[in-house]
Amino acid sequence: MIKNESNSMHVTQSFSEDELISKCKSGELKFQEKLYKHFYGYAMGVGMRYLKNRDDVLEVVNDSFIKVFKSIQSYNEHQPFKAWLRRIIVNTSIDHRRRNLKHMNQADIDEAIYIGKAPDIIENINAKDILKLLDILPETQKLVFNLYEIDGYSHDEIGEMLSIPVSSSRVYLSRAKEKLRKHWIQQEGSYAG
């Protein structure tokens, strides 16, 4: 008797996010890989906003998933998993950047004056345009902009995360918005002419 193995070998079962998380909580290792693959693209996208080098992002994503699997028992199912994962990735990215801060050129902005609210043009740019523009920003301005405008952290939280004064976080954000505004106006002018 010949068995038809081709049908049984290629059957793949798909699982919902909740099922994957539940299986990971119960310690089933093969589901950690499935969860990793399911959220890999999302995690890389979050990491790319904070780090330029793809290898660094991959390291942060892998470190983040290690943290996820170590602490998955404490994950509260009543909150969205993506939000929990994003927070871990953001914090891991910041930790990675902090370890490499000594290589960054940091201006002393403690004595800088607060510029105030950035002009309204930034408010009218869509998210895709902003993400493209972020590459023109110095690293610290980009980091603060991401944390505040995209991920919704407060200046108090940013100051604590980056070990900078709250006023510095505000100044970095203001300078980032001003630089983005100027670049955007320049780009708009070049398209119009």
Automatic annotation (TrEMBL):
Gene Ontology process terms (BP): DNA-templated transcription initiation
Domain RNA polymerase sigma factor 70 region 4 type: 129-180
Record CDD domains: Sigma70_r4
RNA polymerase sigma-70 region domain segment(s): 35-100
Keywords: DNA-binding, Sigma factor, Transcription, Transcription regulation
Top-level taxon in the UniProt lineage: Bacteria
Molecular function via GO: DNA binding; sigma factor activity
Pfam families reported in the protein's UniProt record: Sigma70_r2 (PF04542), Sigma70_r4_2 (PF08281)
Database matches in SUPFAM superfamilies: Sigma2 domain of RNA polymerase sigma factors, Sigma3 and sigma4 domains of RNA polymerase sigma factors
Family as reported in the entry's similarity comment: Belongs to the sigma-70 factor family. ECF subfamily.
Alphabetical list of PANTHER family matching this protein: RNA POLYMERASE ECF-TYPE SIGMA FACTO, RNA POLYMERASE SIGMA FACTOR HI_1459-RELATED
Protein known as: RNA polymerase ECF-type sigma factor
Native source species: Arcticibacter svalbardensis MN12-7
